[in-house]
Amino acid sequence: MGEDVRAYAESQRSTFERFLRELVEIPTVSADPARKGDMQRCAETAAELIRSLGGQASIWPTSGNPIVFGRFERGPDYPGLAFYNHLDVQPADEPEWKSDPFRLRVEDGRYIGRGATDDKGPAVACLLAAKYAYDRGLPLNFYFIWELEEEIGSPHFEEGLQAHRSEVRVRSVFVSDSIWISRDRPSVDYGLRGLQGATLYLRTAEVDAHSGVTGGAAPNPIAELCRILMACFDPGTGEVKIPHFYDDVVPPTEEELDNFVQSGFDVERFRKTYGFRWLRTEDLRELLKRIWAWPTFEVHGIAGGYQGPGIKTIIPHWAEAKVSMRLVPNQVPEKVFQLLADYVRQLNPLVEVRSHGSLAPYVGEFKGPHADALRRAVRRAFGIEPAFIREGGSIGAVLTMKKLLDVPILMMGLSLPEHGYHAPNEYFDWDQARRGIEVFNYYFEELAQLYRG
Ligand code: BES
Ligand code: MN
Ligand code: MN
Fold this sequence. Notes:
alpha+beta; 3 domains
């Protein structure tokens, strides 16, 4: 059986590439309202891909972007498994792209393009894996839920799923949208951080003023926002200074931290992968706690003032900072936003604080029959135990599926740190796709047994 699965996976290379190309070449940047038409087009293309493999597909409309719903159903009485992936992508505005981010470039088994690894490649790997399991008669129904608003916090996912939840007859959900420790160490995630985004906007005058004529007396909005940001967190340690910010935090247990440390994560490899000139901590246990299970405050961008060539001696009249806070159990995004807004108001009541999306943190179980099934599948495919970890990213739909479907949610991505999530020249690779198709099939076999018994 293992031989056949491996041979099948190997045989899918050209199909995989063709499907991925179709998807990557539609610029599904969910943050950009001008891409609205591409979202619909991508949903239709994805539905066609599912149909071309013999599945059924429909498109759930929402008041935002549509959701693709695919089915490979054996019969109404078979146990079901739903896959979640997202087909929207981050903007590709980075000047470091070496080729058009929305043309798939294939080079030495690498697929380069925006969304190749996050999350179009893994979506196609899941699809091809399920197609094989379906064709060879595994007694399972397979469902696909492909979202097009994940990268903006899944604002209409609940609306779409709520309207169609009776069609999703499943015993568990499988999410492939996260990263491994390294190419040799697969990881299964049982937790994600939440996110509260915000913009801070300050206007100090109607127009810019001469900095020689007014400087010394004029308020500087950029400097004032910097003061406020520095009051919110310590850039050296990352410690958040907003009063009561940590009140609801449940720290990871020592057992969890032990597991993190044993995951095979390497601090120097991490530093090199991202090219960081330094790190806030180099202690393995402390670093893993901070990126996977501790809240943060980050500044994503500061705007205002003069950005052209040379220097322009003005006092700018406005400034804006885009920030977000990653959250962990049991922090409540709306409550944390209120803490930030109150604190900033106290520091300077003229600063306008706007919420930019709220996602609650998620922690599931890493024990139980599904986790064991996945562990066995990984061992069979790669001869190694997966690391059971939490990761620091956020996927809004996971909490919504937990709430509406109320079944175990298993998360195992196929992406690697070097694939460059959200980075220029993002890529996926055939090796990971092939290994995904294989290991997922072993997992389906395990599930078929689990649900039979
Ligand atoms: N796939 C990521 C989330 C992720 C990253 C999970 C790393 C596990 C490990 C997802 O596409 C993502 O980037 N989510 C955004 C959501 C936000 C924009 C609302 C994130 O985490 O920044
Ligand atoms: Mn993703
Ligand atoms: Mn992403």
